[in-house]
Amino acid sequence: MQNNRRSVIQAKWILKWIIFVSIILLAMALRGALFSIRVRDYNIYMSPWYDFIYSHGGFTALKYNFSNYPISYLYLLAIATYIPLSKIVIIKSISVFFDLLLALFTYLIVRLKYEKSYVPIIAALLALFTPTVFLNSSLWGQSASIYASCSLGGLYFLLRKQPLWAFLLFGLAFSFKLQAVFLFPLLLVLLITRKIHIQYFLIIPTVYLITLLPAWLIGANFMNLLTMYSAEVNHPPQSHFLTLGAPNIFQWIPVSAAQFDMWKNLGILLALSAVAILSFVVRASRRKITNDIMLRLALVFVLVMPFLLPEMHERYFYLADIISLIYVFYFPDYFYIAILIELSSLLSTRGHRFVSMRYKVGGQTRATKPAPNLRPRVLSYIPYLMGVRMNQQFLAVLIFGVIIITSWDLGKLLFSTSQSDSA
Protein backbone atom coordinates (compact mmCIF):
# COMPACT_ATOMS: atom_id res chain seq x y z
CA MET A 1 0.00 0.00 0.00
CA GLN A 2 2.79 2.38 0.94
CA ASN A 3 4.72 1.46 -2.21
CA ASN A 4 1.66 2.21 -4.36
CA ARG A 5 1.26 5.61 -2.71
CA ARG A 6 4.93 6.37 -3.26
CA SER A 7 4.61 5.37 -6.93
CA VAL A 8 1.61 7.68 -7.36
CA ILE A 9 3.48 10.62 -5.79
CA GLN A 10 6.51 9.92 -7.97
CA ALA A 11 4.33 9.70 -11.10
CA LYS A 12 2.69 13.05 -10.27
CA TRP A 13 6.10 14.62 -9.71
CA ILE A 14 7.34 13.32 -13.06
CA LEU A 15 4.18 14.53 -14.81
CA LYS A 16 4.53 18.03 -13.34
CA TRP A 17 8.12 18.25 -14.53
CA ILE A 18 7.15 17.01 -17.99
CA ILE A 19 4.52 19.74 -18.19
CA PHE A 20 7.00 22.36 -16.94
CA VAL A 21 9.73 21.37 -19.40
CA SER A 22 7.16 21.22 -22.23
CA ILE A 23 6.10 24.80 -21.55
CA ILE A 24 9.75 25.90 -21.49
CA LEU A 25 10.27 24.20 -24.86
CA LEU A 26 7.15 25.92 -26.18
CA ALA A 27 8.60 29.28 -25.11
CA MET A 28 11.82 28.42 -26.94
CA ALA A 29 9.87 27.29 -30.02
CA LEU A 30 8.02 30.61 -30.01
CA ARG A 31 11.35 32.42 -30.04
CA GLY A 32 12.80 30.10 -32.66
CA ALA A 33 9.90 30.86 -34.99
CA LEU A 34 10.96 34.53 -34.95
CA PHE A 35 14.69 33.98 -35.38
CA SER A 36 14.69 34.18 -39.17
CA ILE A 37 13.14 37.67 -39.20
CA ARG A 38 15.73 40.39 -39.70
CA VAL A 39 14.63 43.77 -38.40
CA ARG A 40 16.17 47.20 -38.81
CA ASP A 41 18.29 47.11 -35.64
CA TYR A 42 19.74 43.75 -36.58
CA ASN A 43 20.58 44.88 -40.12
CA ILE A 44 22.13 48.20 -39.09
CA TYR A 45 23.85 47.29 -35.84
CA MET A 46 24.15 43.70 -34.63
CA SER A 47 24.92 42.03 -37.95
CA PRO A 48 27.65 44.51 -39.05
CA TRP A 49 29.23 44.39 -35.58
CA TYR A 50 29.36 40.60 -35.70
CA ASP A 51 30.89 40.75 -39.19
CA PHE A 52 33.51 43.26 -38.06
CA ILE A 53 34.53 41.14 -35.06
CA TYR A 54 34.62 37.97 -37.16
CA SER A 55 36.71 39.56 -39.92
CA HIS A 56 39.18 41.16 -37.48
CA GLY A 57 40.16 38.05 -35.57
CA GLY A 58 37.50 37.70 -32.89
CA PHE A 59 38.51 39.23 -29.57
CA THR A 60 41.35 41.24 -31.11
CA ALA A 61 38.70 43.30 -32.94
CA LEU A 62 37.64 44.82 -29.63
CA LYS A 63 40.60 47.19 -29.69
CA TYR A 64 38.80 49.12 -32.45
CA ASN A 65 36.04 51.67 -31.86
CA PHE A 66 33.34 50.26 -34.16
CA SER A 67 30.22 50.09 -31.96
CA ASN A 68 28.16 52.32 -29.68
CA TYR A 69 27.26 49.37 -27.41
CA PRO A 70 28.95 48.66 -24.07
CA ILE A 71 32.04 46.51 -24.27
CA SER A 72 30.42 43.88 -22.03
CA TYR A 73 27.92 43.07 -24.78
CA LEU A 74 30.69 43.05 -27.39
CA TYR A 75 32.50 40.39 -25.33
CA LEU A 76 29.47 38.15 -25.74
CA LEU A 77 29.32 38.95 -29.45
CA ALA A 78 33.02 38.10 -29.78
CA ILE A 79 32.45 34.74 -28.06
CA ALA A 80 29.57 34.14 -30.48
CA THR A 81 31.89 34.40 -33.48
CA TYR A 82 33.65 31.22 -32.31
CA ILE A 83 30.43 29.20 -32.18
CA PRO A 84 29.60 27.31 -35.41
CA LEU A 85 26.00 28.48 -35.78
CA SER A 86 24.37 30.87 -38.22
CA LYS A 87 24.95 34.53 -37.41
CA ILE A 88 21.35 35.50 -36.77
CA VAL A 89 20.69 32.44 -34.59
CA ILE A 90 23.70 32.96 -32.36
CA ILE A 91 23.14 36.72 -31.98
CA LYS A 92 19.53 36.27 -30.92
CA SER A 93 20.39 33.25 -28.78
CA ILE A 94 22.53 35.47 -26.56
CA SER A 95 19.48 37.47 -25.52
CA VAL A 96 17.27 34.38 -25.31
CA PHE A 97 19.68 32.82 -22.80
CA PHE A 98 19.19 35.86 -20.57
CA ASP A 99 15.42 35.51 -21.02
CA LEU A 100 15.83 32.26 -19.10
CA LEU A 101 17.92 33.99 -16.44
CA LEU A 102 15.23 36.67 -16.19
CA ALA A 103 12.61 33.97 -15.63
CA LEU A 104 14.83 32.33 -13.00
CA PHE A 105 15.11 35.52 -10.94
CA THR A 106 11.38 36.11 -11.36
CA TYR A 107 10.85 32.64 -9.89
CA LEU A 108 13.24 33.30 -7.00
CA ILE A 109 11.68 36.66 -6.07
CA VAL A 110 8.13 35.30 -6.13
CA ARG A 111 9.27 32.25 -4.16
CA LEU A 112 10.23 34.56 -1.30
CA LYS A 113 6.49 35.11 -0.81
CA TYR A 114 5.20 31.68 -1.87
CA GLU A 115 7.73 29.19 -0.52
CA LYS A 116 5.72 25.98 -0.89
CA SER A 117 3.63 26.63 -3.94
CA TYR A 118 3.59 26.40 -7.72
CA VAL A 119 2.94 30.15 -7.93
CA PRO A 120 6.66 31.01 -8.48
CA ILE A 121 6.79 28.59 -11.43
CA ILE A 122 3.70 30.21 -12.93
CA ALA A 123 5.32 33.64 -12.52
CA ALA A 124 8.52 32.46 -14.25
CA LEU A 125 6.58 30.99 -17.16
CA LEU A 126 4.54 34.17 -17.55
CA ALA A 127 7.81 36.11 -17.66
CA LEU A 128 8.96 33.94 -20.57
CA PHE A 129 5.71 34.53 -22.44
CA THR A 130 5.53 38.28 -21.78
CA PRO A 131 5.34 39.77 -25.31
CA THR A 132 7.88 42.54 -24.78
CA VAL A 133 10.33 39.99 -23.38
CA PHE A 134 10.25 37.42 -26.19
CA LEU A 135 9.90 40.05 -28.94
CA ASN A 136 12.88 42.01 -27.63
CA SER A 137 15.19 39.00 -27.73
CA SER A 138 13.98 36.76 -30.54
CA LEU A 139 12.56 39.30 -32.97
CA TRP A 140 14.54 42.50 -32.45
CA GLY A 141 17.72 40.82 -31.22
CA GLN A 142 18.03 43.50 -28.53
CA SER A 143 19.90 43.02 -25.27
CA ALA A 144 17.34 44.31 -22.74
CA SER A 145 17.05 40.91 -21.08
CA ILE A 146 20.77 41.00 -20.22
CA TYR A 147 20.77 44.11 -18.06
CA ALA A 148 17.23 43.40 -16.82
CA SER A 149 18.09 39.90 -15.60
CA CYS A 150 21.13 41.26 -13.74
CA SER A 151 19.00 44.06 -12.26
CA LEU A 152 16.36 41.57 -11.20
CA GLY A 153 19.08 39.46 -9.62
CA GLY A 154 20.25 42.54 -7.71
CA LEU A 155 16.70 43.14 -6.51
CA TYR A 156 16.42 39.52 -5.41
CA PHE A 157 19.53 39.73 -3.25
CA LEU A 158 18.35 43.04 -1.77
CA LEU A 159 15.15 41.29 -0.74
CA ARG A 160 17.29 38.50 0.70
CA LYS A 161 19.33 41.12 2.62
CA GLN A 162 22.54 40.17 0.82
CA PRO A 163 23.81 43.56 -0.41
CA LEU A 164 27.21 42.34 -1.58
CA TRP A 165 25.70 40.05 -4.22
CA ALA A 166 23.05 42.67 -5.01
CA PHE A 167 25.62 45.37 -5.80
CA LEU A 168 27.78 42.97 -7.81
CA LEU A 169 24.79 42.23 -10.05
CA PHE A 170 23.79 45.90 -10.25
CA GLY A 171 27.34 46.68 -11.32
CA LEU A 172 27.13 43.99 -13.98
CA ALA A 173 23.76 45.33 -15.14
CA PHE A 174 25.25 48.82 -15.44
CA SER A 175 28.15 47.46 -17.50
CA PHE A 176 25.64 46.15 -20.06
CA LYS A 177 23.18 49.04 -20.27
CA LEU A 178 22.90 52.54 -18.89
CA GLN A 179 19.17 51.93 -18.33
CA ALA A 180 20.11 49.83 -15.30
CA VAL A 181 20.24 53.16 -13.38
CA PHE A 182 16.43 53.25 -13.39
CA LEU A 183 16.54 50.96 -10.36
CA PHE A 184 19.42 52.76 -8.64
CA PRO A 185 17.17 55.26 -6.76
CA LEU A 186 16.02 52.27 -4.72
CA LEU A 187 19.62 51.94 -3.52
CA LEU A 188 19.60 55.60 -2.50
CA VAL A 189 16.46 55.05 -0.42
CA LEU A 190 18.02 52.04 1.28
CA LEU A 191 21.10 54.14 2.03
CA ILE A 192 19.27 57.06 3.65
CA THR A 193 17.09 54.66 5.65
CA ARG A 194 20.26 52.88 6.82
CA LYS A 195 19.37 49.53 5.29
CA ILE A 196 22.73 49.38 3.49
CA HIS A 197 26.14 50.94 4.07
CA ILE A 198 27.67 53.49 1.72
CA GLN A 199 30.78 51.38 1.01
CA TYR A 200 28.68 48.97 -1.04
CA PHE A 201 28.25 51.71 -3.64
CA LEU A 202 31.93 51.36 -4.53
CA ILE A 203 31.16 47.92 -5.94
CA ILE A 204 29.22 49.24 -8.94
CA PRO A 205 32.04 51.37 -10.45
CA THR A 206 34.55 48.67 -9.52
CA VAL A 207 32.64 46.03 -11.46
CA TYR A 208 32.28 48.45 -14.37
CA LEU A 209 36.03 49.13 -14.42
CA ILE A 210 36.83 45.42 -14.26
CA THR A 211 34.67 44.78 -17.33
CA LEU A 212 36.75 47.35 -19.24
CA LEU A 213 40.10 45.73 -18.49
CA PRO A 214 40.08 42.86 -21.05
CA ALA A 215 39.38 45.26 -23.93
CA TRP A 216 41.99 47.70 -22.65
CA LEU A 217 44.59 44.93 -22.42
CA ILE A 218 43.78 43.96 -26.01
CA GLY A 219 44.53 47.52 -27.08
CA ALA A 220 41.30 49.55 -26.85
CA ASN A 221 41.51 53.20 -25.82
CA PHE A 222 40.74 53.24 -22.09
CA MET A 223 39.22 56.73 -22.07
CA ASN A 224 36.85 55.78 -24.89
CA LEU A 225 35.77 52.75 -22.87
CA LEU A 226 35.44 54.73 -19.65
CA THR A 227 33.45 57.62 -21.13
CA MET A 228 31.16 55.61 -23.39
CA TYR A 229 28.02 56.38 -21.37
CA SER A 230 28.97 60.04 -21.12
CA ALA A 231 29.23 60.18 -24.90
CA GLU A 232 25.85 58.44 -25.18
CA VAL A 233 24.13 60.96 -22.89
CA ASN A 234 25.77 64.05 -24.38
CA HIS A 235 25.67 63.09 -28.06
CA PRO A 236 24.23 65.63 -30.52
CA PRO A 237 20.55 64.72 -31.07
CA GLN A 238 19.79 62.86 -34.28
CA SER A 239 16.41 64.57 -34.20
CA HIS A 240 14.85 67.14 -31.92
CA PHE A 241 12.32 64.78 -30.40
CA LEU A 242 12.27 64.63 -26.62
CA THR A 243 10.74 61.16 -26.74
CA LEU A 244 11.92 58.43 -29.11
CA GLY A 245 8.76 56.35 -28.93
CA ALA A 246 8.36 56.12 -25.15
CA PRO A 247 4.86 56.88 -23.82
CA ASN A 248 6.09 59.52 -21.38
CA ILE A 249 5.49 63.11 -20.36
CA PHE A 250 7.14 64.51 -23.49
CA GLN A 251 4.31 63.19 -25.65
CA TRP A 252 2.45 66.35 -24.61
CA ILE A 253 5.30 68.80 -25.14
CA PRO A 254 5.93 69.92 -28.74
CA VAL A 255 9.46 71.31 -28.84
CA SER A 256 11.31 73.31 -31.46
CA ALA A 257 15.01 72.87 -32.10
CA ALA A 258 15.75 76.10 -30.22
CA GLN A 259 13.97 74.83 -27.11
CA PHE A 260 15.33 71.29 -27.19
CA ASP A 261 18.25 71.69 -24.79
CA MET A 262 16.15 73.61 -22.28
CA TRP A 263 13.42 70.95 -22.15
CA LYS A 264 15.97 68.14 -22.10
CA ASN A 265 17.71 69.60 -19.06
CA LEU A 266 14.35 70.32 -17.44
CA GLY A 267 13.34 66.66 -17.91
CA ILE A 268 16.54 65.45 -16.25
CA LEU A 269 15.99 67.91 -13.38
CA LEU A 270 12.39 66.76 -13.04
CA ALA A 271 13.43 63.09 -12.81
CA LEU A 272 16.09 63.84 -10.21
CA SER A 273 13.61 65.93 -8.24
CA ALA A 274 11.07 63.10 -8.26
CA VAL A 275 13.71 60.71 -6.90
CA ALA A 276 14.70 63.20 -4.20
CA ILE A 277 11.09 63.86 -3.16
CA LEU A 278 10.17 60.19 -3.01
CA SER A 279 13.34 59.40 -1.04
CA PHE A 280 12.50 62.18 1.42
CA VAL A 281 8.94 60.90 1.80
CA VAL A 282 10.17 57.40 2.60
CA ARG A 283 12.68 58.76 5.10
CA ALA A 284 10.06 61.02 6.70
CA SER A 285 7.63 58.12 7.13
CA ARG A 286 10.10 56.40 9.48
CA ARG A 287 8.69 53.07 8.40
CA LYS A 288 10.75 49.93 8.45
CA ILE A 289 11.70 49.09 4.84
CA THR A 290 10.11 45.71 4.33
CA ASN A 291 10.16 43.58 1.19
CA ASP A 292 6.66 44.82 0.34
CA ILE A 293 7.79 48.45 0.51
CA MET A 294 10.97 47.69 -1.40
CA LEU A 295 9.09 46.05 -4.24
CA ARG A 296 6.62 48.94 -4.43
CA LEU A 297 9.52 51.40 -4.57
CA ALA A 298 11.23 49.37 -7.29
CA LEU A 299 8.17 49.53 -9.54
CA VAL A 300 7.55 53.23 -8.94
CA PHE A 301 11.16 54.11 -9.77
CA VAL A 302 11.37 52.04 -12.98
CA LEU A 303 8.16 53.76 -14.10
CA VAL A 304 9.00 57.31 -13.05
CA MET A 305 12.52 57.42 -14.52
CA PRO A 306 11.69 56.65 -18.18
CA PHE A 307 8.44 58.62 -17.84
CA LEU A 308 10.23 61.86 -16.92
CA LEU A 309 13.61 61.54 -18.64
CA PRO A 310 14.05 62.86 -22.21
CA GLU A 311 15.08 60.87 -25.30
CA MET A 312 13.61 57.63 -24.05
CA HIS A 313 12.88 54.71 -26.38
CA GLU A 314 9.73 52.63 -25.89
CA ARG A 315 11.81 49.63 -24.84
CA TYR A 316 13.12 51.54 -21.81
CA PHE A 317 9.98 50.44 -19.91
CA TYR A 318 11.30 46.86 -20.14
CA LEU A 319 12.24 46.71 -16.45
CA ALA A 320 8.78 48.03 -15.54
CA ASP A 321 7.20 45.28 -17.67
CA ILE A 322 8.85 42.50 -15.70
CA ILE A 323 8.79 44.07 -12.21
CA SER A 324 5.08 44.83 -12.63
CA LEU A 325 4.52 41.11 -13.24
CA ILE A 326 6.23 40.30 -9.94
CA TYR A 327 4.28 43.13 -8.29
CA VAL A 328 1.00 41.47 -9.24
CA PHE A 329 2.00 38.21 -7.55
CA TYR A 330 2.86 40.09 -4.37
CA PHE A 331 -0.24 42.28 -4.49
CA PRO A 332 -2.95 40.40 -6.46
CA ASP A 333 -5.55 43.17 -5.98
CA TYR A 334 -3.52 45.21 -8.47
CA PHE A 335 -3.55 42.57 -11.22
CA TYR A 336 -4.47 45.20 -13.79
CA ILE A 337 -1.21 47.10 -13.20
CA ALA A 338 0.89 44.56 -15.10
CA ILE A 339 -1.67 44.44 -17.92
CA LEU A 340 -1.73 48.23 -18.36
CA ILE A 341 2.06 48.55 -18.28
CA GLU A 342 2.62 45.69 -20.71
CA LEU A 343 -0.01 46.98 -23.13
CA SER A 344 1.42 50.50 -23.01
CA SER A 345 4.95 49.25 -23.54
CA LEU A 346 3.95 46.81 -26.28
CA LEU A 347 1.65 49.12 -28.23
CA SER A 348 4.10 52.00 -28.14
CA THR A 349 6.51 49.99 -30.26
CA ARG A 350 7.45 52.14 -33.18
CA GLY A 351 6.80 51.01 -36.69
CA HIS A 352 10.37 51.83 -37.74
CA ARG A 353 11.62 48.80 -35.82
CA PHE A 354 10.13 46.62 -38.51
CA VAL A 355 11.49 48.47 -41.53
CA SER A 356 13.87 46.48 -43.74
CA MET A 357 12.70 43.11 -42.48
CA ARG A 358 13.89 40.05 -44.33
CA TYR A 359 12.50 36.53 -44.37
CA LYS A 360 14.13 33.36 -45.64
CA VAL A 361 11.47 31.50 -47.65
CA GLY A 362 12.38 28.65 -49.94
CA GLY A 363 16.01 29.72 -50.05
CA GLN A 364 15.11 33.24 -51.17
CA THR A 365 15.06 36.47 -49.21
CA ARG A 366 11.76 38.34 -49.26
CA ALA A 367 10.57 41.54 -47.69
CA THR A 368 7.73 44.09 -47.42
CA LYS A 369 5.01 41.61 -46.41
CA PRO A 370 4.71 38.54 -44.19
CA ALA A 371 6.20 35.45 -45.72
CA PRO A 372 3.32 33.15 -46.72
CA ASN A 373 5.26 29.95 -46.04
CA LEU A 374 6.66 30.97 -42.66
CA ARG A 375 5.44 28.65 -39.90
CA PRO A 376 3.52 29.18 -37.75
CA ARG A 377 1.68 31.66 -39.97
CA VAL A 378 0.22 33.73 -37.15
CA LEU A 379 3.71 34.57 -35.91
CA SER A 380 4.72 35.91 -39.30
CA TYR A 381 2.19 38.73 -38.87
CA ILE A 382 3.33 39.80 -35.40
CA PRO A 383 5.69 42.54 -36.65
CA TYR A 384 2.99 44.06 -38.84
CA LEU A 385 0.43 44.07 -36.07
CA MET A 386 3.07 45.65 -33.87
CA GLY A 387 3.92 48.20 -36.53
CA VAL A 388 0.46 49.76 -36.19
CA ARG A 389 1.07 52.65 -33.84
CA MET A 390 -1.34 53.53 -31.09
CA ASN A 391 -1.99 57.08 -29.98
CA GLN A 392 1.13 57.77 -27.95
CA GLN A 393 -0.51 60.38 -25.75
CA PHE A 394 -3.19 57.88 -24.71
CA LEU A 395 -0.52 55.33 -23.80
CA ALA A 396 1.31 58.00 -21.81
CA VAL A 397 -1.92 58.64 -19.91
CA LEU A 398 -2.07 54.93 -19.03
CA ILE A 399 1.50 54.98 -17.71
CA PHE A 400 0.83 58.17 -15.76
CA GLY A 401 -2.29 56.58 -14.26
CA VAL A 402 -0.29 53.54 -13.17
CA ILE A 403 2.34 55.81 -11.56
CA ILE A 404 -0.41 57.57 -9.59
CA ILE A 405 -1.97 54.27 -8.46
CA THR A 406 1.31 52.64 -7.41
CA SER A 407 2.57 55.82 -5.70
CA TRP A 408 -0.71 56.19 -3.80
CA ASP A 409 -0.53 52.55 -2.73
CA LEU A 410 3.05 53.08 -1.54
CA GLY A 411 2.07 56.24 0.34
CA LYS A 412 -0.79 54.49 2.11
CA LEU A 413 1.57 51.76 3.25
CA LEU A 414 4.26 54.19 4.38
CA PHE A 415 1.92 56.29 6.50
CA SER A 416 -0.51 53.67 7.69
CA THR A 417 -0.61 52.81 11.38
CA SER A 418 -0.46 49.07 10.74
CA GLN A 419 2.90 47.38 11.14
CA SER A 420 1.82 44.07 9.65
CA ASP A 421 4.03 44.17 6.58
CA SER A 422 6.19 41.14 6.06
CA ALA A 423 9.90 41.79 6.28
Structure description:
With 423 residues, this protein is mainly α. 64% of the residues lie in helices and 2% in strands. The protein contains 19 helices and 4 strands. It has helices at residues 2-32, 40-55, 71-80, 87-111, 119-129, 131-139, 144-159, 163-176, 184-192, 203-218, 222-226, 228-233, 260-285, 291-308, 318-330, 335-347, 377-380, 382-386, 392-415, and strands at 243-244, 312-313, 359-361, 364-366. A two-stranded parallel ribbon has the order 1-2. Strands 3-4 form a two-stranded antiparallel sheet. A hairpin with a 2-residue loop joins β3 and β4 (364-366). α2 crosses α3, α7 packs antiparallel against α8 (163-176) and α8 (163-176) crosses α10. It is globular and about 70 Å long. It starts with a helix and ends in an 8-residue tail after the last helix. The relative contact order is 0.11. The model is unreliable at 354-381, 383-388 and 419-423 (pLDDT under 50).
